[in-house]
Amino acid sequence: MNDKYIGVFDSGIGGLTILEQLKEVLPQEDFLYYADRGNAPYGNKSEEELLKITSHVVSKLKQRGCKLIVIACNTATTRCMQKLREEFSDIIFVGTVPAIKVACDNNYNNILIMATPATIKAERTKQLIKDNKKITQNIYLTACSGLATAIEKGNFKEINKILTNVFKDYQDKDISAIVLGCTHYPLIKEQIKVKMPHAILIDGSLGVAKEVKRQLQEHNLLKNSKNNGQIFFL
Ligand code: DGL
What we know:
The chain is 44% helix and 18% strand. It is an alpha/beta fold. It folds into 2 domains: 5-96 and 206-233, Rossmann fold; 100-203, Rossmann fold (3-Layer(aba) Sandwich). The strands form 2 sheets. The protein has a 5-stranded parallel beta sheet, sandwiched between helices. Strands 6-5-7-8 form a 4-stranded parallel beta sheet. β3, α3 (74-87) and β4 form a beta-alpha-beta unit. α1 packs across α10 and α2 (47-63) packs across α3 (74-87). The longest helix has 17 residues, at 47-63. The chain is globular. The two termini are 21 Å apart.
């Protein structure tokens, strides 16, 4: 087996929040990160369009020698992962989905899920709610159009404007937990906390990293080295 990298991709810098956690859990591994900026944002693309785009990215990473590919993007995972698994049946994929299960399992009463318009619409997201929501819990969904792009550009004025608009309908809902259902959003945790100081923020990055480790162990693909690995950018 010559494939040596763990491939990680997103539409931009969002996936770095997953990469950071991966590096912590699997320090000896080598990572190959691809930010698909040319096709960003993913969150306003149709399923068909996004499948074409992500399938191209996966081919690229596969060619470079990836033993596993992490879809460090909630949009691409909830919309395309199943089809990508069918198309590339020889690749091990680990995806990123909104951490709805974590929020529900921790018994928060009023949960707000922030995600891109495409993730909010996705069947997979609806299924995650159906599978995990307890009868006593309220789950609210909010499509944060333009937020990932504003984060990508570091446009804090625009970020602030979008957040004010997004949260205005939930100020009286006693929101106890916010699920950051886009990998860009952990990058603006501080700004979110200012607007919703009483809510716990939940993201799925640790769960993704643990699942990658589990898959590598199961397939006997862990890198056998005591030295720290490297991160390469494609
Ligand atoms: N970071 C991505 C996600 O987790 C996508 C953001 C975008 O390109 O719209 O959904």
